[in-house]
Amino acid sequence: MSNDETTPGPRASRRAAKPRKRRRGLKITLGVLLVLLLATGGTLYWLYSQLDGNIKGVDINKALGEDRPEKLPTSGQNLLVLGSDSRAGAENRELGGGGSVGGARSDTAMVVHIPEGRSKAVAVSIPRDTLVTRPECVKDDGSTVAGKERVMFNSVYAQVGPACVVKTVEKMSGVRVDHYLEINFAGFKDLVDAIGGVTVDVPQDIDDKASGLSLTAGPQKLNGTESLAYVRTRHGIGDGSDLGRIGLQQQFLMALLSEVKSQDLLGSPTNSYKIAKSATQSLTTDSGLASLTSLAEFARSMNGVDPASMETIMLPVAYDKIDPNRVIASEPQSGQLWKAIREDTTIPEEAKKSPATGG
After folding, report:
1. pLDDT digits (tens, 9 = 90+) for 126-177
2. Cβ atoms 74, 116 nearer than 8 A
3. Nearest to 250 by CA among 231, 278, 228
4. C-alpha span between 180 and 106 (Å, rounded)
5. Burial 251-273 (b: 16+ CB within 10 A, else e)
6. Is 339 helix (H, G, I), strand (E, B) or coil?
7. How far is the C-alpha of 28 from the C-alpha of 124, rounded, in Å?
8. Average of pLDDT values for 196-219?
9. What local confidence, expressed as pLDDT, does residue 104 receive?
């Protein structure tokens, strides 16, 4: 598993709260949040035009060519959203726990499906410890990397790059990925700090000695560094696996969106600009979204999507029989889930149940 150490300052709560019973899976990344933020800004997107240079673009279509799933006319829109644990830059290295960890991995990942009509959305999180078959891919330098079975999902990014992550997801799901969004450690932290922190109701005491995160159950307002530790903690909750923290990530996303919604972005262009600047500095997208104008136009097309109604599902997985520290996609549940997304139909309830829960 990848290094999850961070160095937040300790926080203590004065009140206790009952643990939350419902924990649906979600790998939180702030790329989706940025889209929602820009949608909230609506007519103010023109303020951000000077920030275009902050966004890095990846030409996914050129890298993947024609060997991709068919785009069905009624399949809606599908976004692959990644949170990268890149150690590039001093701030990312510090937030990643320092040390000599090189490269980057897709620390968090989810496929966001927006059905035709864009009145709702479904987010499917892919546990980073999932063993997958990596297809043959072409790197940025033009060299070819042979396909390989039983590789950890989060290693694909480090070994071959974002285009290969898209190709891996498309091969395992049969779902055509329309857009790609990625944000790194520093972008997550800075965005939370830009909105003034996020209040979460910590479901149980957390004492993660690996990261230094210490929280008692109850409402707590977390800054950017603490928030990053909260959504990445493994040792402080559940069985210590990647699956155990997914409930925290889903809870944090809802709290974050609620905080954004409560702020008057339309009435505060300065605050809107500050938030957009902090996000775009650490944002990478596919070339089709690699400008504030394109991103804002896409966001406005999602105005009918209510974040509160977004359904969050963890890809159904089972513990691997050879290596119990890894998981594999569980059948027939995962196949049913991807089929429903491909065909833009209702997801069967049995397709939302994961044999491995991380509890």
Report:
1. 988 999 999 999 888 889 999 999 999 989 998 999 999 999 999 999 999 9
2. yes
3. 231
4. 13
5. bbbbbbbebbeebebeeeeeebb
6. helix
7. 10
8. 88
9. 57
pLDDT value at 332 more than 50: yes
- Report the candidate in 161, 138, 123, 148 with the shortest Cα–Cα distance to residue 314: 123
Task: Say what the pTM is.
Answer: 0.78
Which pairs count as long-range contacts for 265-272, CB under 8 Å and 24+ apart, including other chains?
Answer: 265/37, 265/40, 265/41, 265/44, 266/40, 266/41, 266/42, 266/43, 266/44, 269/44, 269/47, 271/194, 272/37, 272/41, 272/44, 272/47, 272/48
Report d(CA 49, CA 221) in Å as an integer.
32
Say how far apart CA 355 and CA 320 lie, in whole Å: 11
E strands present in 85-178: 106-114, 122-125, 131-134, 137-138, 144-145, 148-152
| Tokens found for residue 302 | 């999602």
Work out whether the CA dihedral 224, 220, 267, 40 comes out positive or negative: positive
Residue for token pair 């104008």: 293
Supply the DSSP symbol for 355. Answer: S
Q: How far apart are the first and last CA of the chain?
A: 17
What values do phi and psi take at 189, rounded to 5? -60, -50
Q: Report the relative pairing of strands 311-314 and 283-286 from DSSP bridges.
A: unpaired
Q: What is the pLDDT of residue 267?
A: 58
pLDDT tens-digit series, residues 279-306:
777 788 999 988 877 877 787 777 667 7
Rg of the chain over all Cα atoms, to the nearest angstrom: 19
